[in-house]
Amino acid sequence: MLPFPIGLKLGLPVTEQIIFAVKKAVVVGQLKPGEKFPSVRVLSQELRISPNTAHKAIASLVDEGVLVATPAIGTVVAPHEAGDRKDCAHLLGPEVERLVVEAKNLGIEREDMQAAVAAHWEKLEAPGRQSSHK
Amino acid sequence: MNAIEIHNLTRRFGRTDAVVDLSLSVPTGGIFALLGPNGAGKTTTIKILMNLISPTSGRASVLGVDSTRIGPKERAQIGYVAENQDLPLWMSVRQLLDYCRPFYPSWDRDLERALLVQFDLPEDRKLKNLSRGMLMKVALMSALSYRPKLLVLDEPFSGLDPLVRDEFVQGILEASEFGNWTVFISSHDIEEVERLADHVGVIDGGRTKLNESAESLLMRFRRIEVNLQGRTPLLEKMPAEWLAIDRVGTRVMFVDSRYSEGTAEALFQRHFPDAVVTSLPMTLREISLTIFRSGRKTPKGITL
Distance, in angstroms, between B221 CA and closest chain A CA? Predict the structure, then answer.
């Protein structure tokens, strides 16, 4: 079994779906810093995806600093660094823009969108889940 | 070097064109899926690649060797499981492996044993007493024990129930731990291979329709829905990349085959000023169906 929840959907690139699922699991604390991450082999067999795809997903996560490759152990979840807040916000730029565009397209009010974001935020920080944010 | 290269391949049977001007390239390493409906020319293509039949024109190469020159030496580097592969059902698993082994100088006893363990196959059991899934794994392991550079599976999923298919897919992935052969799978069942394949070739009517990485396909195809909201669309010079254009009431729908997040918005705005445009990702199956349909019908005049 994989240490993070993922339900692959058809129609979206598999690598992106894995990257998102892993980031989410890190944020909600399901994957803890230092925890061993599944190998290419395990990821490929569990998700029934090509080893190439599994390798690509792990390489991207290492590139983005979500995972760290350690020689003898394999990849582990990176220590969670708060980093520069502006830098972090900058990373989400395209996603935020997309959200705003979609919301405007659908005619959703700004307040309603903000409320929806807040609701999701709370859902991820709900008690019982260890938040990695301080 | 690509594992397989096909250039302008044509094969005629009497008056029937089974394969027409087909070109495909299969990169080395990874999993390639050859997709197309029944009668698209998949098996003919594979038979040419295996030099079981010769092309009418054009050429193909497998592992760098022209397909018409493929003989026993080259076949020893190709693992091939045919559709409805006949196995001698009266033999036991062990007897079958003993029978196959001498044909292949590169047969690897250690790999054979490792696969037997990995696939959990009972050596002494007669093939006729094995489940369908186990039989497929026996066929798979006898095609892999000589460490081929290329594994060719012709319609491996047809006639298998979902559980057995999944078991077989797992077998293919488990086996890939032991060697880095290129996997070439033909299938009419697109959903079965959507997640599995790195690269896809889609053929229809013997012709190449698509040949690229699965990821790039999923990125560049989007189902677009436009809500005109009383605005007048610009109907001239609709991009040729927009397929299957249709209009229902105040909504225009089409498939954008060259979607890119950066440029799509401006293009949509030009043709549908101030309209609400939504774009939805498509599955490989939906993409293929769009391609098959747009190839069949002469595009009818769209009255918008």
Answer: 10
Could you say which residues from 275 to 304 on chain B have a Cβ atom under 8 Å away from some Cβ of chain A? 276-278, 281-286
C-alpha to C-alpha distance for A118 and A19, rounded to whole angstroms: 23
Query: Is the distance from CB of B39 to CB of B204 less than 8 angstroms?
Result: no
Query: Given CB atoms, is A15 within the 8 Å cutoff of chain B?
Result: yes
To test the contact with chain A by mutation, choose from B32, B165, B168, B173 the residue with the greatest count of A C-beta atoms within 10 A, namely B173
Range of the domain at B226: 222-281
Same domain, B227 and B212: no
C-alpha B13/C-alpha A131 separation (Å) is: 66
What's the pLDDT tens digit per position in A25-67?
Answer: 888 788 999 999 999 999 999 999 999 999 999 999 999 999 9
In order of A77, B169, B232, the CA distances from B270 in angstroms are: 46, 46, 11
Put simply, the chain A residues between 63 and 102 with a CB less than 8 A from any chain B CB are none
Please check whether residue A50 is in contact with residue B31, taking contact to mean a CB–CB distance below 8 angstroms.
yes
Q: Position of tokens 């089974």?
A: B18
Give every CB contact of residue B107 below 8 A, 6+ residues apart in sequence.
B100, B101, B145, B146
Span B255-271, average pLDDT: 88
Q: Which residues contact B4 (CB under 8 A, 6 or more apart)?
A: B24, B25, B26, B32, B49, B60, B61, B62, B63, B150, B182, B184
Type of residue found at A95: E
Sheet holding B276-281, edge to edge: B242-248, B251-256, B222-227, B276-281
Give the one of B31, B278, B281 whose C-beta lies nearest to A105's C-beta.
B278
ipTM at complex level: 0.84
Same domain, B208 and B255: no
- B255 with B229, same domain? yes
**pTM, two decimal places:** 0.86
Give start and end residues of each alpha helix (H) in chain B: 42-49, 72-75, 93-100, 109-119, 132-144, 162-175, 190-194, 214-220, 261-271, 284-296
Quick one: average pLDDT of B254-282?
A: 87
Predicted local confidence at residue B200, as pLDDT = 96
* Multiple choice CATH, A14-77, 1.10.10.10, 3.90.1010.10, 1.20.1050.10, 1.10.760.10: 1.10.10.10
Q: Say if residue B206 is in the same domain as residue B233.
A: no
B113 CB-near residues (< 8 Å, 6+ apart): none
